Amino acid sequence: MPENFRLLMIGAMYENGGNMTHRFLDGHPGMYVYPFESQLGTKLINDNLTSLFPVKYRWPVFPLNGTASEDYKLIIDEEVKVRARTPQVSKFQKVDFRFSDEVRYEIYDKYVKKEGRSRANNIKAFLRSTFDAWKNYQKSGHEKYYVGYNPVSVVDAEKILADFPRAHFLHVVRNPWSAYADTKKRPVPLTLESYTLGWNINQYFALLYKQKYPRRMHILRLEDILDDSYKILGDLCKRMELKPDNSLRKISWNKEELDQVCPWGVIKKATVEDNIRTATELSKEERKEIEIRTRQYILEFEYENIFKR
Question: I want to staple 30 with a disulfide (CB 3.0 to 4.6 A). Which of 44, 178, 226, 242 is the partner?
């Protein structure tokens, strides 16, 4: 039942290190780590945040009257479905991902028909069926948690924690200068004004839910993860009643070590030096404008002296 389902959901503003943290956790024997972004949202989402963040990254909404088949089709899950159905156009076409979306649906349908339709049961069935259908997934046999990642999903953390009483949520924050500098490398980047607005909103919800759910809501700085991923993520594992594992020292996909995070994310190298160097790519005017717009959270996360390191 949902109350016994163990989920770790990771969230972060764009280019804040969510994908990188996801890859650091990939090799842990106690975790089923989703292969790409777990884009669980549906087109039925409509609230005050819909205009700010894509619905594919949000916590899903399902119709009251529907079927398992209709629910399954509503879940966007773009990265997995594109890789499975049209691998030649996927940015992950080179990875060895032996997976059938049709097989996953058949397994999903059986789970939902057995346990009933609800948002929690739908998501539980979707995650379980993903790993059941992933033929070459390297299982340890000791998995306890399912691990997903979506940008900006912290705005829905309260819903996630309510749907799954044993779930944990991890929010990753990165200094806004490095984050915006990496965002600028996208083909169609957000403006500085739009980016800092989204960055601020992410930190607002993270701190709010940390106060409300201190035992299950976790906030980590990417800078600390890069400095000592084993210690920082190992401490997180302990809070989730998991043992730290040496796999936390490296990034990987399906337990195979990666030399860079790309194409999972824009951030390529998992080093402290590269992170700070990225921040210095901005002009003085951009640095100052970001400081003005994010000042309260710069102080909250102790980023005010980042250029002096």
Answer: 242
